[in-house]
Amino acid sequence: MYWDTFLYIDAAQRIAVGQMPSVDFAAPVGPLGYYLFAWGLKLFPAAQPLLLAQWSLLVVIAPLMAVVVSEVSKTSRGLAFALLIPALAFAVFPSNAQFYHPLPGVDGFGIYNRQGVILLYVLTCGLLFLPDGRRLALFCAVAGLALFTIKITGFLVGGLLGVIAMLSGRLSVRTALLAAVAFAVPLAALELATGMVSAYIRDILQLASLNEGTFLPRFRTVVSAKFDVIVPAVALAVLLAWLDLRHRDRSVRLLDSSTVWFCVAMAGGVIYETQNTGSQEFIFIWPVLLMIYGRVAPLEKRTRVVFVALAAFCTIPTASAISAKTMRAVAVMPLYEQPDLSRLRNVGQVSARHDILARAEMLDDHFASFEPAYEDLARHEQMPGWQYYSEPDNQLQWLLSANRMLAALETFETSNNMRLDSVMTLDFTDPFPWILNRTPTRHVQIGRDPSRTVGEMTPETRRAIEATAGILKPNCPYTWARRDLQATYAQALQGRKVVALTSCWDLLLRPDLQTQ
Question: Residue 398 forms beta bridges with which residues?
């Protein structure tokens, strides 16, 4: 699903021309990830976009983990490394725990979900291993700000962890109030200066209203997809409850018990994953398990062995899946071929197996020749394949098709002595303003999914689309999502001249622009 990465490219160009997330365009997540990517792209203009999007959050994660490691290493270097190494691995590996395709590769989707869950890992480390005081308050404020501006569901789960930390006595009321002030002041300043915070909250509320009724189905999906983790977690929770009852330390508050912390962390993981597709699920239970091991270590050997075994079952499936996917991708990379996508700038830095690439190269002609078949699928609300967006051949087809379209667009502009100053694409993703260095259309959603993120067209959106010089319309393959998106914006597209750039792409030209 490489084209989820294009959302960062789209946002970077919008930010470069002065647009602000949520104020000038709606976004499904917070603005921080987009700004980090945009700043990173200025520092590393030739960066591979997926890796840049994945690694840019290290700017936030690294200082926070440095604080934790510095404190923990005073008493235990082993524990410090046990916290640090997974944090770095999860932050660096651009892979999700779930497998959507058997071929080796990295995951170009769910990037902000991975960023949210690694921030929850860092926050959990701070709550469990930093002493109460002003440093912990500042730590929580920074982590909270990052969570709030990356993924709102991550912030809510982080708030749940913070509440337990308060009730357990690890976070005093004074420290919590100080953290709240340090969290609120930057947001208030940002709101007064830009109006971005309230606009962001409106976006989230609108997104929630468009996705009503999906919580329970997604809850079932999380439980079934992570059955290998949840089953041993239930067994471990029972063990911890038994140990807390049998070996209760009266100096430890009831809500600071091992059972409470583990169950809250697992519940937070389930809540977070109900709103995500693609993530590194439940990784923030690792710091909790390390804290609990410190309590279990003095007990009899048999108890320690059972605890370690169950803890391993809870953590190894996720960690091994993420590591194995990344290592497999690195191992086969020299055997993959890189197609000629020179017109796509950074977006074209991809490689694939030769047979997948060969299939992708013929798909444009196939889709154009058999369009009625795909129209029939769309009439039944079906995609060309059950996992159409997950298939690498279809992602490659989009890239190859876009590369051909850009060549045709260049020829069209040259022959007509014209330069389209603004462009927009009638598709889920739109990297072309950045690729062409043109102005993106304001008030248009990033990640345009008509079933989940796009509501009715507003007057501001209509005026912005009508003012756009060129609208790019993909036709291969014909899908219900593209059909519905075009129907949503139909009134703003009236009167445009249709120019067939290739068999799979049309250019909808603003009526006042003359062609030869």
Answer: none
- DSSP states of 30-44: -SHHHHHHHHHHHH-
Contact, 172 vs 132, CB < 8 A?
yes
Cβ(70)–Cβ(63) below 8 Å: no
pTM score, whole prediction: 0.94
Q: Which residue type does 373 have?
A: A
Q: Which two tokens stand for residue 159?
A: 């708030």
Contact status, residue 411 vs residue 516, Cβ threshold 8 Å: no
CB atoms within 10 A of CB 1: 20
Asked if 255 and 164 touch (Cβ cutoff 8 Å), the reply is yes
Find residue 422's DSSP bridge partners: 439
- Joined tokens for residue 423: 């462009």
Q: Which residues contact 249 (CB under 8 A, 6 or more apart)?
A: 295
Residues 168-215: tens digit of each pLDDT: 999 999 999 999 999 999 999 999 999 999 999 998 888 777 666 566
Q: Comparing C-alpha atoms, which of 284, 324, 7 is closest to residue 158?
A: 284
Shortest CA distance to 395 belongs to which of 108, 110, 10?
108
For CA atoms 152, 38, 55, 446, the dihedral sign is positive
Would you call 120 helix, strand, or coil by DSSP?
helix
Nearest CA-CA partner of 476 in 404, 380, 424, 407: 404
Q: Up-side HSE of residue 203: CA atoms within 13 Å toward CB? A: 27
CB atoms within 10 A of CB 266: 22
The sign of the dihedral angle between the CA atoms of 27, 29, 31, 33 is negative
Which residues, including other chains, have CB under 8 Å from residue 248's CB and lie 6 or more apart? 257
At residue 372, what is the residue type?
Answer: P
Q: Is the dihedral of CA 428, 214, 484, 21 positive or negative?
A: negative
Structural contact between residues 67 and 135, judged by C-beta atoms closer than 8 angstroms? yes
How far is residue 469's CA from residue 421's CA, in Å, rounded to a whole number?
6
Place of tokens 């990052």: 146
Single-letter residue type at 9: I
CB neighbours of 321 closer than 8 A, spacing ≥ 6? Answer: 95, 97, 98, 99
35-61 pLDDT tens trace = 999 999 999 999 999 999 999 999 999
Place of tokens 């946002």: 11
Residue type, 495: G
In what side-by-side order are the strands of the sheet with 422-425? 439-440, 422-425, 470-474, 505-509, 497-500
Q: What is the dihedral of CA 188, 189, 194, 199, to 10 degrees?
A: -20
pLDDT digits (tens, 9 = 90+) for 370-410: 999 999 999 999 999 988 988 999 999 999 999 999 999 99
